[in-house]
# Entry
Amino acid sequence: MIRLYMGDIHGDYSIAHEVYDHAIDTFLDGQIPDELIQVGDYGFGIADGMWNNSHGNHPLPNVRMFIDGNHEDHELLFTASDKILDGWKYMQRGSIVDRTGYLGGAASADKDLRIKHSNDLYGYVVGSIWSKFEELEQKDIFAFADAAGLIDFEFDTIVSHTFPSICDMLWATNPLFGSDERKLETTRMLLQWVYQNYRDQIKLWVGGHWHRGKHWRERDTQFVLLNTVSSLPSRNWEHINQCFYIEER
# Structure
C-alpha cells in the first residue's frame, strides 16, 4: 500500500495538485497512491471549496485525509458535513486509524501580526484567519491515550502539524516569528508527552508547519518535516521534492 503525505497547502489547490502530479510522474511511475494524507494548514474554510480532481492531471485517491493546522476555520471544520468535505476525511485530534495517530493543531507564530496589522504592513487583514482553537488541548491527548489503549497500542506512525519539543526547530525559525522559546508552546509540549510515552513504537513521525523540509532521527523514530507548497518557487525541484513524502506500508 502506497501512502503519499503532503505538506502545508494553505488553500493553494492548483499548486498542491502540481506537486502531487510531479510526485506520481517522477517517483511512482504514474501510479496513483492508495492514500493521500495532508498534514495540516489545508486552508479549510479560508480557501473556497476543497482540493479535487479539477485542479490537476492525475485523479486524487479515493482515500484522502487531512488534519488541522493553525490556518483553518476550526469552528466550521469541527462540525463539517461529508458534503462540505467533498470526499476528504478530517482526521480528528487524538484519533488512531490503520496504525496511524493523528494530532492536528499548532500555535501561530505570526498570531500577533495576523490579528493586529493591516494589509499595508504584512499582507494580513486585521483580525483575520486566527482561531482560538488552533492548538492541541489536553483532552485531545486523553483521547489519543484512550484510543491507543483500545487497540493495545498497535500503532507506529504519528501525523501532526508541528513537532514535539525534543525536536530542535531553531534552525527553521524565522526571527520575526519567535525563538527557541517556541519549545514551550502548548501543542509542542503535549506532543512531547506523546513522544516520551510511546517513542519505542513510533517509527515514523510526519508533519509540516515550519515551511522547511528536512528528515532526521531521534532514537528509533524517523521524523519527516514537509515543506509548504505555498509560494512554490518555479521549477525549484529541491523545494518541490520536500513538499511530499512517499511511504510504502
Remarks:
- The chain has eight helices and eleven strands.
- The longest strand covers residues 2-6.
- Confidence is low (pLDDT under 50) at residues 117-127.
